[in-house]
């Protein structure tokens, strides 16, 4: 017969022991941890989540997504299990605050860093504009396009709702800066259809002391003052006016910096013709460009043959180590990165 008058000591396990055991095996949760949890109650402005703590954790609606959420049901369903970010420590009631938005935020920055490393072109719709430029969303993150990097003749205000191709200029999670360029994306696309030595027709859109900006099919190229003529020129204003239509030759395509460098000097039949007889330069442009391409090819082949000969001969005479002329002879002021 079982003795029903056993004392707590004889049983060997008290309520205090049970509480201590719970404390011993209770998980320790810290802000910044990512833990699994199960939704067991959805409320009008949040939800209660079971993450294995003594008290149910809470996620407010504003922490449910990196995007705007009007109702918790847009994101969560009862009995759903997923990852949550512990946002704050326990409050006076022992309740933790959770976030999904922080997880999406971290993964979004990881994704845009990867896209930048791949030099990817992304597309996004403009949702707002301000005096400085336009605002877009990339992977849920808010990005900024400076006005100088928007290549369109439309007023900025009319861009809202329009989808634009974009390249990354700056990805800085610590400073929360995501800066993009529409201009560079267009230049890259245009560059894929252009070649060095090609003659194109453009329109003068701006004149600076160091050169003229030429619109060629919706993208801007720089005709540096040193590439206007073999003759000395004091200022580009002495040769061009805004809205002039010009024939120019492409002498450099720099996709990384989003620059197209142009020349009329290389199209001159005789030095100074851009000043004395511009129509002759335009009439002979394709002929002079063909000669330029032949010379460029000869120099490139010369460099290749030198490289092959270097495998046989230990020393190469300096005379044959002739460099191909730089696309732009003088350093271009940073100001053209408008």
From TrEMBL:
GO biological process, alphabetically ordered: translation
GO molecular function, one term: structural constituent of ribosome
Species in which this protein is naturally found: Tolypothrix tenuis PCC 7101
Lineage, highest ranks first: Bacteria, Bacillati, Cyanobacteriota, Cyanophyceae, Nostocales
Keywords, ordered alphabetically: Repeat, Ribonucleoprotein, Ribosomal protein, RNA-binding
Presence of the UniProt keyword RNA-binding in the record: yes
Domain S1 motif: start-end pairs: 32-101, 119-183, 197-265
A GO cellular component entry from the record: ribonucleoprotein complex
Classification via InterPro entries: NA-bd_OB-fold, Ribos_protein_bS1-like, Ribosomal_protein_S1-like, S1_domain
Sequence similarity: Belongs to the bacterial ribosomal protein bS1 family.
Listed Pfam families: S1
Function comment: Binds mRNA.
Stored NCBIfam families: PRK07400.1 (NF005639)
Entry protein name: 30S ribosomal protein S1
Keyword RNA-binding in record: yes
